[in-house]
Amino acid sequence: MPIESVNDFVIRFANVNGSGSASANELFARAVLRMGVPVSPRNIFPSNIQGLPTWYEVRVCEAGHLGARGGTDMMVAMNPQTWAKDVAAIEPGGYLLYDCTKPLPKSKFRDDITVIGVPLTAITNSTYTDPRQRQLFKNIIYLGALSALLDIEPKVIEQLIGEQYKGKEKLLSSNVHALHLGRDYTLGNIKCPIGLRVRRADTVGDRIFVEGNAAAALGAVYGGATVCAWYPITPSSSLADAFTGHCRRLRHDAETKKAKYAIIQGEDELASIGIVIGAAWNGARAFTATSGPGVSLMQEFIGLAYFAEIPAVIMDVQRAGPSTGMPTRTQQCDIISAAYASHGDTKHVLLFPEDPAEAFDMAAQAFDLADRLQTPIFLMLDLDIGMNHRLCRPLKWDDARQYDRGKIMTTAMLESGVDFGRYLDVDGDGITYRTYPGTHPTKGSFFTRGTSRDRYAKYTEDGPAYQDNMQRLLRKFETAKDLVPRPLQANAGKPTKYGVIYFGSTSPAMDEAIDLLEARGHQLDRLRVRAFPFHSSVASFIAEHDFVYVVEQNRDSQLRSLIVNELSIDPVRLVPIVHYDGTPITARFITGAIGDHLDALKVTPLRKVVS
Amino acid sequence: MTYVVKPKFHHPELPKNKLGYTHRDYEGAVSTLCAGCGHDSITASIIEACFELSIEPHRVAKISGIGCSSKTPTYFLGNSHGFNSVHGRMPSVLTGANLANRDLIYLGVSGDGDSASIGFGQFAHCLRRGVNMVYIVENNGVYGLTKGQFSATADRGSKSKRGVVNSDSAIDMVGIALQIGASFVARSFSGDKKQLTPLIKAAIEHQGAAFIDVISPCVAFNNHAGSTKSFDYVREHNEAVNFLDFMTGRPPIHVDYAPGTVERVEQHDGTVLTLRKLDAEYDVHDRLAAMSFLHHHADLGQIVTGLLYVERDAEDLHGHLNTVEAPLNALSEKDLCPGAAVLDKINASLR
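ok -> structure tokens follow
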């Protein structure tokens, strides 16, 4: 039976990268959104520019679930290279849209799916002669076909094309023409609509559709970052690109047209973090955008910033594995390497945004935290939220908000005769005063070193002085626990002995899994951790439950290790639920893994089994 | 000498500069380097240059990497902020500091291990970006702090103190600096303070990436027969192309020279360098000729010193980036935050 579903299905576009399909596919997602139905699109792309397979998956879901669902109800198979795999991936009863210009043997298809052929190449070639035009408009033609098949309002797509090509009339009209070529052929030759349909709804509200990297970059603009140094690395490059774009629009002096920012593409990640540390040492708000391998390269400098107590913001857009291949796939696999980055005894503050809106908030907050705590702050994004458009609440800013520049000893304070010791803890919170270079002709200068020094920044290799400093750094980390974003707890409808801890991009899949688990009769309290060091409520949440699942997207259950290590929790109490094949975690996976474990806990008496 | 605390008193009639400071105001802690170390002479030249230019000490940021040379910022300008960063990474830290506040003077101190080996990349890239700085390499051809291993500037065929002959070819930092676009390139010798001090002064005045390679013999590990970085060797093979006398705009020192031997070098910011030419053919504005001259004399076993190249219209990194005149670290919420109204518009564009 063909699948019948309105406003709830997954469609996947199988393309060849470099063929210009991305903008047509994005147009599809936006059109559904404009009809008031939430979508969550995901790019699945290779580490390559042209010629390799790439997929774009759109989950259409009126109920508002934004996590990856798993499975494909309709495949738009545009890549012969992956044909067999793509056809096999369709759910039974699903649909296949393909280019039927060249006949294919029956063995290439399946009996349990609906096959829809549109002669895309034939239509394209009879209309266009230029090879690049043929390639690009073919994408718009299949979009036209889809609008007929799925009952998408053509006016909505036309309006989106109009917005995209505003002022470029020729491009605008030729795109609209291509759209109707595909739509008209399909309406005239195929029974429309099919079982999968989009129906106008009103569940998007005032939400926005934005990539996490772009939102984090905007957060850096709002948070007052003036220096950005970075080295190209997927999936973080678009963050630095977005920061550059935002700054060009928002950060030039109205009169002089001069830039109120400096962006350096470093020669490597070492130089990038060095520039950030130098700028922050000198009182500017600075950040770098990178990914796991970049964090590995920055290790020595991160330790220096920790010991020398220099603010630095590191936006880590996480991905899988080193070298090529998996690096274009998502993971949450840098938790341990970021939390304990560098040699010696070090610990760092990590922030875990769940979506672009929180990426914006936390990016801006990271600069306040870095200045307040005088230490590196990691914003732990990942490819799933960083490089995909995600529906989220509008970004918010309070105009009354002041930047927290932390404890800065000013010229006036030095003049008044305050006892300045760069590493002197006068307030008992482990945080000491610093001076910017050039503050005063005779007072307040100090020498910054990574190695041991006394409270007045004088060089010493004296053991007690070193220990004194290391203990103060621990006090500072304690202070951080109450400054970083608190965990958010949501309890099940009924009291339960079981809980779940999760973080970051796992959020939408986890929310959906809670509903699915409840349908299976399982109740779970949940805690979304939003930062490290852990707030005391993390320990109490674990104490209140017999078992707590820790759901994360890496092999070694890194967050769980961090909880065990930092909160001295018996590991038996924390059950790892890990997903690490490079695809975003799904509600189906979580429900299966936790559900099976909970089912197993419902002990069936031996007598019953035997009889 | 580390246990000696420097006395604070000084001779009441020590000469004062325009700001009323004496030499002592430009000094730092007592050096902990070996007695006779070439690096201490460079420290003395830096102090002299800053004193003579009447620079406010706290308006200088001194940044270094790791090694004997990188320890020296502790020994001068005690009222300046200093940063002993990590090995080979002074250039990036300095670049960031310079971006944050374009109004300070940036003095980067490094060594041959720090800049020609572990930090070769950063050395190259900060010069090609045109960071407004004085980049001094205290070059002794040897790793001093780790007891005498060859560095990448050690000449092929030179002999270590243990008798090992270096078989790797040497990196000529001046040659590299010229090739990658430093806008001020000089070489000097720690034993020639008369030549070095004016070069440091000129480098400070230069608005752009100024690089000075200072041959600075290591008395502990590289001052023996067979070394090409020893005091004796450098004195014997020093081929000075010019001598920088003074800068106008400062109290001039009147010296008479034979006509045709003095060249006035105007810098972009209006300062004028007066150059006494020892080699009449040498043109400090010709990058290509300078490179060729260096290669030619290197083949003859000579070490060319002096101001080797200066670009007439140098522009620094802030110029390339078109940054505002105010230091970036002085900008406030008002300057930097676009505000809620703009954010609402951005939200609207994302629907």
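The mean pLDDT of chain A is 95.
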